Please model this.
Amino acid sequence: MTWTAASAPLGRRRITVSDRRTYGAYGVLVLADTNGPDPQPGQFYMLAAVERWGGGADERPFLPRALSVLRAEPGRAHFMLEDVGPGTDRLLELAVGDDVWLLGPLGQGFQPPEEGRRAILCGGGVGTAPLAILEDALRAAGTASVALLGFRDAPHAQGAALLGDPRVATDDGSVGHHGRVTELLSAELDADPHAVVYSCGPPPMLEAVRAICEARGVPAQLALESGMACGFGACYGCVVPTRDGSYIRVCVDGPVVDADRLDTALVAGAGH
Amino acid sequence: MSGAVDFCGLALEHPVINASGTFDAIAAQRVFGDALLADFPFSAFVSKTITLEPRAGNPPPRIYEVAGGMINSIGLPNRGLAGYLEHDLPSLAALPVPLIVNVMGSVADEVVQLVEAVDARAEIAAIELNVSCPNVKTGLDIGADPDELARLLAAVRPRTRKPLIVKLTPNTADVARVAVAAEASGADAVSLINTLRAFAAHSTRPGAPWLGGGTGGQSGPAVRHVALAQIAAVARRVTIPIVGMGGIQNGRHAREALDAGACIVAVGTESFRDPLAGQRIARELAAPRV
Model:
């Protein structure tokens, strides 16, 4: 079984915010994308507010922002946001009825595990987003999965409510396991070394997941983040180095890549 | 859509093309499918810069957002001439618009080889020379110095009868002098502006560059008025057609570049925000002035 994505509609679409929710430190935007194709788990969209895109900190934002889709239902796409800069700051200001420019769905998403293998979903922070739609798709396919999520503190850990029944770790011990989500991952792999790992999160966490899976010979699919201008292969800005010495574009060759293609998941420049 | 224009003998459906290195038609067709061919946003397609040998490009990070634009330090990744001709050209030849190939070499002999190889291919309508590159012998940017550029064109011009466009760098004291040298040395057109050299400071290491390549080039609406001044300065001094670009986001911006003396315009950074920006701008340009 493989999951195949449809072509993205050519051009950005003007879409209205139909719902706006809050999960502790995170906001969720629900967009009434009635004409777009269904996204595959791990795919992303480029988003920009139609009004006042610019004029925030440092007179930014200017470029649209790449956001993994959190969840899809017919005619609606959900996005999970954390306020980390002028782009996400502006998107989180949006209210029901406001309009955004939307391009996508874009990129290569996750692929389901081989028959009979269980999926371990391991996320950190806003990297929870693509694991929610993945969990939905795995459940629909009848594939067993377990979700492990790491957050820094209790307000962020409220993001765990976006998945079914995840096990949670927090840096400060306020919720769940006191420590790193990768500790939960190692324990899970001790119990089931034949699982397949799916991961998204901050670069140090993702790199730790990559290293654990490499050491154990466990296949892993990593959803990467990189600063990008366009999302459709035009700007060549979002590259990451691969093990074979070349660069791949996160937007068209990713964002989900097999971990064994990478020497490191520490992507340079994430976070500007 | 009205607005058909002749540019160096190329019959263009409208006066909006893409800036080199800002649109990958092959990647875009992978993403958007054949809709891209049915609705191609530009009236000609300009390739990214092709060099003789393959280039991997600069280490990331490669882009940095600024007020009204961005700084890029991509480093001209490409398959090299042979890879381009074998792998990319067949796909690009299927585009519904004329193909302009942008080439760059660090010495005249490299540029001659590139131009001769491109000249031999009927699928290619015109050649654009990227001269925003240091001469490895003198250290001078070829496009920043009229004499350097004249020497290069003396070697290159006789090797092709295809239209030869010289892409001018804004990072020079007097862009019009360079444009005059281009015209006198046989260029059929000039295009400007390329990106403005710019520096993005690292967020945690004082004095260090954020971008993996060190300095970069700034583009977007923040540079548009610099572009207008340079287009006008060049238009006063040359009679060959000008491709005007730099921060164009809509029909009014395109009109201002044409009014400054450009024959056609190119769109770059705005296509990152809106893949159909070229088509939208052409449509807005064709609408009656208000």
Summary: DSSP finds ten helices and 14 strands in chain B. Chain B touches chain A at residues 21-24, 26-28, 30-33, 35-36, 39, 48, 56-57, 59-70, 72, 74, 77, 203, 210, 212, 220, 269, 271-276 (CB under 8 Å). Chain B has a mean pLDDT of 95.
